[in-house]
Amino acid sequence: MFRKIVSNLAFSPALVGQLGFYAKRLRKEEATRRVGLIFTALALVVQSFAVFTPPESANAADGNNIIYGGFKDKKELLDIYDRNKDTAGHRDLQQIYGYFGVTRQDIVNGNMQTINSKDQDNKIQSTGRSKAEFERTAHVIPGTSTTVYSSLLSKWDSTSWSIPHGSDYTAIVGKRAVDGKWFAIMSGCGNVAYITLPPPPPAPPAATCSTLIITPITRTKFSFTATASTSNGATITGYAYVVKDSKGAVITTKNQVSTGKTNVFTYEFTKDGNYTASVTVNTSVGAKTGTTCQKALTVAPEARCVVNPEYPVSSPECKPCEENKTIWYKDNDCHSAFKETKMVKNTSQLVADANNTTVQPGDRLEYRISVKNVGTTTGQYTIEDNLADVLEYADIIDTGGGRLLTREDGSPVERVNTIVWPPVTIKPGDTIEKIISVQVKSTIPATPQSLGNPESYNCKMVNDFGTNHTVTMVNCPAPKVVEQVVEQLPHTGASENILFAGSVLAVVVYFYVRSRQVKKEVRLIRRDLNAGTI
After folding, report:
1. What is the pLDDT of residues 243-289, one digit of tens each?
2. Within a domain: residue 325?
3. Which of 162, 285, 498, 533 maximizes the CB count within 10 A of its CB?
4. 472, 440 in Cβ contact below 8 A?
5. Which DSSP string do the residues of 338-392 spell out, in sequence order?
């Protein structure tokens, strides 16, 4: 149309009006395309955030985390490592990493990258602070009261898609200086991943006082034979004997220089009574003694306690075991032992054993805990029941006389939502019982599963007590079903995003430049028409 108007201007000057109308339309088109260009530029800015800023998990931190809440980059990890404290107050991070052979320099030398749970021939072991529904290996961290647990990282793959392909994790990956083996520290939780445990440190020189044997020679004369052992280059320099009466007063001492692993000392008592003898072995690694090198003896003829001849019959320590009168009350075989049981009942659906059944919103459940003393003496037992997984989908109705631990009362994060009762004394054969009542929420939450603990918000209410394991299924809403089917968005990298954005930008720029060009042509034609050149 534009070319037709321009070509006929010389023959019909009246077409200038149509050319003016066409120019106005071009100005509107230029304004529209200018707005399109602005919005495209803004879209590119937003798209750049998605390309160059990696997404971070929106899931809440979990008690399974070695570092509560994880970390974003290597600098943050090193800051937490140097403080040896995370936001949950754990002060054992250096000890845990050291147990698995990871040093600060190993972290410095590592790089942030993505790993898959099926990497390393599916041999990657991951760690955490909590037990799982599946079996995990316990690791007691030396120098702390911490126990962490490890299992194959691929065991956390919880969907049908991830089982053959594995799940991806962002982590600091490197090699341990101690043995050159692969390790990783996952950013979402600070948990250590490894293939094999580091080798144990070389054994230091050691010495032990092995035994002290007391042999009667006569009624009042005894020989004391001490034996010791050494290893890794340790040496023996002597033996020091101490004999005390029943009141703890020292009767005699004897120091004997010797480098042998056996030494004999003889002593004759002047009074009847109960005595204790101990020997300390002086070695190149210090003085060594122990319970095996501390023995009691009796100089007859005073009548002795039937269940423990170390004491006279009149001694308050001469007491038999509560259920077995033939042994002493402090004997190793005289102890309390407890058997724990737990049942779950759905009182709303009238299901007596609701284990492995499905509950509905609003259902009321009763957890019945019982502890029986199956030992031979009275003992104390403290009942604790962690309901953290249950309370994701239910609310407490009755704690059964127990106290629910919360963050507000200063409880550690891994013990939050645990019900504790005061210690109780249980006689042999007696049983105590506690009943906890909970009610399933009327609206089942669609909270996504935690990155640090896939067992969280997994449409199950799991509860463990002793060796008892109860599981009740929850009828979750549709978004949770989608979550279990589609675990993550399609993997599109920076190249695909930039290519798509560049194509859109090129199209918009083309139409904008074309509009400017046509506008300029109209302006030139109108100028030539006014000047009379056409």
Report:
1. 999 999 999 999 999 999 999 999 999 988 899 999 999 999 999 99
2. no
3. 162
4. no
5. EEEEEEEEETTTTBS--TT-EE-TT-EEEEEEEEEE-SSS-EEE--EEE-TTGGG
Same-domain status, 222 and 352? no
Query: Quick check: 386 and 415 in contact, CB under 8 A?
Result: yes
Q: Are residues 104 and 157 in the same domain?
A: yes
Tell me which residue has tokens 């909270």.
447
Q: Are strands 262-268 and 384-386 parallel, antiparallel or unpaired?
A: unpaired
Distance CA 344, CA 340 (A): 14
Show the CA angle centred on residue 229, arms to residues 224 and 232, nearest 5°.
160
Q: Which H or E element spans position 192?
A: strand 192-194
Domain of residue 453: give its range: 338-476
The predicted-structure confidence for 353-373, as pLDDT tens digits, reads as follows: 999 999 999 999 999 999 999
DSSP state of 328: B
Rounded to an integer, what distance in angstroms lies between the CA atom of residue 213 and that of residue 457?
61
- What is the DSSP secondary-structure string of 132-152? -SS--EEEEPTTSS-EEEEEE
Residues 361 and 388 both lie in one domain: yes
Tokens of 156: 């956390």
Q: Count how many Cα atoms sit within 13 Å of the Cα of residue 298 in the half-sphere of its side chain.
A: 11
Amino acid residing at 490: P
* Residue 327 is assigned to a structural domain of this protein: no
Q: Which ranges of 58-211 would DSSP assign to H, the alpha helix?
A: 74-83, 93-99, 104-109, 119-122, 162-165
Residue 309 lies in a domain: no
319: in domain: no
Total domains in the chain come to: 4
366 & 465 share domain: yes
Residue among 367, 305, 355, 350 nearest 330 (CA): 305
What distance in Å separates the CA atoms of residue 199 and residue 24, rounded to the nearest whole number? 82
How far apart CA 355 and CA 94 sit, in angstroms, is 40
Domain boundary among 194, 228, 243: 194
Helix (H) or strand (E) holding 415: none
